[in-house]
């Protein structure tokens, strides 16, 4: 429970206790016992806390109709349990309490109190969630604006390099076919980056083509020390995903997982359609990391930290890291399916 939550509950209880005090004073013509009122609302608070924790912590993501159903079951239990504890305590402490047929009003007031307090709690919870949602949307818009500005600033250099690579490629003799292919792939990488800087979502096939060309160029550098496989369901090739979301993970695996090993390693990119969208997994047989300090991975590496943050902002969850067997690292994340039936 946060400080604001506690303050809200305290304010609600003080307000209702004061109004209850005034109502009793008017009804009896005398000032009621302060200890009686304190005991009354202390019991209500004790009974409220587990219900509040259940509804707003354990079942916070459940729809409102389910919570209302729980209220309909819990409300009479709340009133009965309160009465079964409150009346014996008053008797034990010698405090005044309503007896006989008038006790029905205690049950009625307790039920009404339950409805009022949880009505206020639900309104506050809804307001807090809407405020948080608005802040997230505002932050996403700010990040998008900054990204667009950065893309505009960076367009000149990649576009210039893209044209230069094409010019160099045209000047290489046909006999140097391998070199021509490498420059063509590098040129394609720059072209895709230019396209990605202007798009929020791209087809999965385009992203995988970009990753494949990147790995082909890295394989030219590492030779037999690097091998890779890409496994993806054919029926999801047209699904839309954020651009440049897989390549930073692949690059991290090559740079920090496979590159340090003399024997190199293998990388596997697997993408499947799951219940929650596209399930993306990038695994390697490299040196791995210490998962106890995995948060350091998101702070030290710019590529992974940016990818983790982008996923959290867009989908509410970031990258998941785990050990690969017998060695290496597995990075998983999921994206909602869009542009795909």
UniProtKB/TrEMBL annotation:
<dbReference type="GO" id="GO:0000155">
    <property type="term" value="F:phosphorelay sensor kinase activity"/>
</dbReference>
<dbReference type="InterPro" id="IPR050640">
    <property type="entry name" value="Bact_2-comp_sensor_kinase"/>
</dbReference>
<feature type="transmembrane region" description="Helical">
    <location>
        <begin position="32"/>
        <end position="56"/>
    </location>
</feature>
<dbReference type="Pfam" id="PF02518">
    <property type="entry name" value="HATPase_c"/>
</dbReference>
<dbReference type="InterPro" id="IPR003594">
    <property type="entry name" value="HATPase_dom"/>
</dbReference>
<keyword id="KW-0472">Membrane</keyword>
<dbReference type="InterPro" id="IPR010559">
    <property type="entry name" value="Sig_transdc_His_kin_internal"/>
</dbReference>
<feature type="transmembrane region" description="Helical">
    <location>
        <begin position="107"/>
        <end position="127"/>
    </location>
</feature>
<dbReference type="Pfam" id="PF06580">
    <property type="entry name" value="His_kinase"/>
</dbReference>
<dbReference type="InterPro" id="IPR005467">
    <property type="entry name" value="His_kinase_dom"/>
</dbReference>
<keyword id="KW-0812">Transmembrane</keyword>
<feature type="transmembrane region" description="Helical">
    <location>
        <begin position="68"/>
        <end position="87"/>
    </location>
</feature>
<protein>
    <recommendedName>
        <fullName>Histidine kinase domain-containing protein</fullName>
    </recommendedName>
</protein>
<feature type="transmembrane region" description="Helical">
    <location>
        <begin position="7"/>
        <end position="26"/>
    </location>
</feature>
<feature type="domain" description="Histidine kinase">
    <location>
        <begin position="140"/>
        <end position="339"/>
    </location>
</feature>
<dbReference type="GO" id="GO:0016020">
    <property type="term" value="C:membrane"/>
</dbReference>
<keyword id="KW-1133">Transmembrane helix</keyword>
<dbReference type="InterPro" id="IPR036890">
    <property type="entry name" value="HATPase_C_sf"/>
</dbReference>
């Amino acid at each position: 429970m946060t400080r604001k939550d506690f303050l809200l509950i305290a304010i609600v209880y003080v307000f209702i206790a004061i109004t209850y005090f005034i109502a009793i004073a008017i009804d009896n013509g005398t000032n009621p016992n302060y200890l009686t009122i304190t005991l009354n609302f202390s019991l209500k608070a004790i009974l409220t806390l587990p219900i509040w924790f259940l509804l707003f912590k354990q079942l916070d993501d459940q729809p409102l109709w389910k919570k209302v159903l729980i209220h309909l079951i819990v409300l009479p239990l709340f009133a009965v349990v309160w009465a079964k504890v409150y009346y014996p305590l008053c008797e034990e402490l010698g405090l005044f309490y309503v007896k006989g047929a008038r006790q029905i009003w205690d049950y009625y007031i307790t039920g009404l109190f339950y409805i009022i307090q949880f009505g206020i709690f639900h309104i506050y919870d809804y307001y807090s969630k809407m405020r948080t949602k608005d802040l997230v949307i505002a932050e996403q818009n700010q990040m998008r604006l900054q990204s667009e500005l950065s893309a505009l600033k960076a367009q000149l250099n990649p576009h210039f390099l893209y044209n230069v690579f094409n010019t160099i490629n045209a000047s290489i003799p046909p006999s140097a076919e391998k070199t021509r292919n490498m420059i063509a792939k590098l040129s394609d990488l720059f072209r895709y980056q230019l396209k990605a800087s202007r798009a929020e979502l791209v087809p999965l096939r385009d992203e995988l083509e970009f990753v494949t060309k990147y790995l082909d160029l890295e394989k030219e550098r590492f030779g037999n020390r690097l091998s890779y496989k890409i496994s993806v369901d054919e029926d999801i090739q047209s699904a839309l995903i954020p651009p440049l979301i897989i390549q930073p993970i692949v690059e991290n695996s090559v740079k920090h997982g496979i590159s340090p090993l003399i024997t190199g390693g293998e990388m596997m990119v697997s993408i499947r359609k799951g219940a929650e969208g596209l399930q993306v997994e990038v695994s390697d047989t490299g040196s791995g990391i210490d998962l106890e300090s995995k948060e350091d991975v998101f702070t030290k590496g710019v590529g992974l930290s940016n990818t983790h943050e982008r996923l959290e902002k867009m989908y509410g969850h970031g990258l998941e890291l785990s050990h690969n067997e017998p060695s290496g690292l597995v990075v998983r994340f999921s994206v909602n399916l869009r542009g795909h039936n």
